[in-house]
Amino acid sequence: MRVTAVDGQGVSAYIEGIREVYADAFSGPPWNEDPSAAGRYAERLAADAVRPGFIGAVALGANGPGRTGGPDGTGEPGRTDGPDAADGPGGTGEPGGEREPGGQGEPGGENRAAWESGPGGGVCGFATAWTTPAPFPGDRSYADVAAALGPDRVAAWLCGALEIDELAVASWARGTGTGFALLAAVTEAAPDGRCWLLTSLRAKDAVRFYRRAGWYQVPVGVPGRGALAVFLGPDHPAAPATGAYGAE
Known about the structure:
By secondary structure, the protein is of the alpha+beta class. The protein is built from 7 helices and 9 strands; from the N terminus they run βααβββαβααβαβαββ.
């Protein structure tokens, strides 16, 4: 497995594999999305790719992009959902559901064979992010985030920071460390370490994944039905140096 960073133009080459990974990662609980949601996400991604500061990352298997022989599953968090997801804050569905990676390394034996020949068309995972604009958006879950944190913290912590919108790993590739690699690839260039995301506390694997990656859960509940929580990257200036997890 290898992880490749892509810009707004480059992400289009992997759209079919991304669509399949999305469908695989979000069809089960706690997301339970309809199969058609993957097609809508692929359409939305084309618009997201032109956002200021857009960066993406794809995890590729032995056969690379396209339907040449199998995915490359990465499956870990399964979803990251940022505030800009379909139903989430900004458009991430609920926001942020990254399923947990489940481990490092690549599978061996029969598991490896399945990993290299899965249904993802060479793509086993993906992540997308962009710069949160100022003033802070007021649509989707952004309004709920602003209500929870207040204008001062939103401006200081989130505006101008890198916002992780989606992070998903295919089920056949989980336990390979792909989720961690994708997260690192899109946050490497975060300005002064300022990056953030939203995820649902109902997505327990996603919450564990981010905590294992050193992210800080802001101990302030986000209003709304999604049971959302804001996470700050481990190097974010507002994240405690102690590595505390915040609210459980």
